[in-house]
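Lab notebook, page 48
Experiment: co-folding of the full assembly
Goal: obtain a model of how the components sit together before planning crosslinking
Operator: M.T.
Materials (sequences as entered):
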Amino acid sequence: MKAQLGFPTRLGWLLLSAPALIALLGLVALPLAELVALSLRERVAPRVFTLGWVHYRELFDQPQPWQALWRTLWQSALVTAIALGLAFPMAWTVARQPRGGPRSLMLGLCLLPLGVGEVVRVLGWAILLREAGALPWVLSKASLSIPAIDSWMREAAALIARVYSSLLFMLLALIAILDTVPATQVEAARDLGGGSLQLLRGVLIPHAAPGAGAACVLVFMLNVSNGLAPMLSGERQGPWFTALIDAEFILRLNWEQGAALGMMLLGGSSLVVSFFLVLAWASRRAPHRRGAATP
Amino acid sequence: MSATPVRAPRRLAPASAGVVLLFMVLALPPVALLATGLVDLGALFGDPTWRASLAQSLRIAFCVALFSTVFGLANACLLRAAPGRAKTALSVLVMLPLFIPGDILGIGLLAFASRLAQFADDRFNWQIDLLRPGAVLAMLGQLAPIVSVSSAILGICLRRLGPGLEDAAIDLGASRAGAFWSITLPRLRSALWGSAMVAALLSLAEVNATQLLAGSHPPMSVWMSTRLRESLHPLPAAAGVWHLLVVAAASMALLRLAGEASWSAPNHRPALSGE
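Observation: model returned without errors.
Model output:
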């Protein structure tokens, strides 16, 4: 019965896979190959190019791209971790609510800012946190305006906006995951005398781990490519990495150098992601072993 | 479905004060926008540059919604038909664009399109304007990650429908294409509308790849982000309010679509019980 739904004919397979092939080749694979080719070519004369490493060598000679890469990667990882920590209790609260009422309100509070996109979210935080914004105004009216706090808030503004956006994505993913925790397991954990901590360690975390891992990778990549939030704090901490790429492509029109920078970002972020995946793969066995050991 | 929902029957589950506070913080930016921008909505619609960017946004969003739904449906069917091993590999491939920074996809597409345009000019002396930065290139740049989202949405809906009715139709002598066309597609209708709406919303909001590809007629998201760099200005806040209202309306419509869909009922009847 089930086999009937397969598409055994060659034409059927071809027709079905054509859109995926077109999209992946035309929009992802070939553009990435073009970037590799661009980054590896050297201009020897007008419109004459040879293969060469000069753009990568230039990267190795400068400290700025490395500093920007380091800052971009570790801040993205930090923000992802904070968002995961904040989103977990929030998502569990939503997942336990009965349908309607408060649950819908909580979902709406998460979905509305998520739907409007990063520009509008950052704009909202700009209204709240910038020098002429609402919060500094409130603080100054309450004569609580201390220069140290003001400058700290300006530094933190980008981080806050980043955590906020990451939290929304993480929350949506975790609600979807924690919604599927079987009630029987939760009740069994309670009946066996488990406290909240045991419920978390024995039931919720093992259940959520694979999906939450995927969500973490997604949120991390969204953070890496989010060049809008840094505008809230200016460039005092140094540029975000995507700003370097955009500058080469738009301002200096040095596409070869920009492509090399792009490859550097892709390599760096893939390294972090694969490190994380290895970590997730290694720790996936732990809860099962623990489960098997306890009678 | 084997897993029963976690939710206790009708009782409000307790929430800690910290969680409630966090949910209130979630509302801060939208509330700030509404407070600042609501009064300027009229001025916003009088602004010709904003109207032009809105028109550009809507054109791009319409095309993205159309293409991503078609591509997403094809991907969902492909994933359903693929045998075990291939299914895993294919689903990784289909989701891949979500895990590549949007900026990199943008510059890659920009460079690739420019090479194609150069090639057409050198070889055939054709001037292909579509390959220069503009609405078409921006649309293509947005399409890659959004097709992944549509594929995921439609894949889930297709799986929830189950193969039962389509199998039955084929057993009764329908062709595969005929069964798909007259049985599966109508039952997927609300899912298709939903995925198109999600794609349009994502397209309206996308900025990373779009700002590289949009050229001299920027859509709304790029228009806003360039004004964000300048100091506070009332019009972007009003545009933010407009966007919030659109998303709120779209969410209501999406909820209704999900409510009337056959695949979203909590314990949907077995596929063969007849409709």
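Interpretation: The radius of gyration of chain A is 24 Å.
Next step: discuss with group before ordering constructs.
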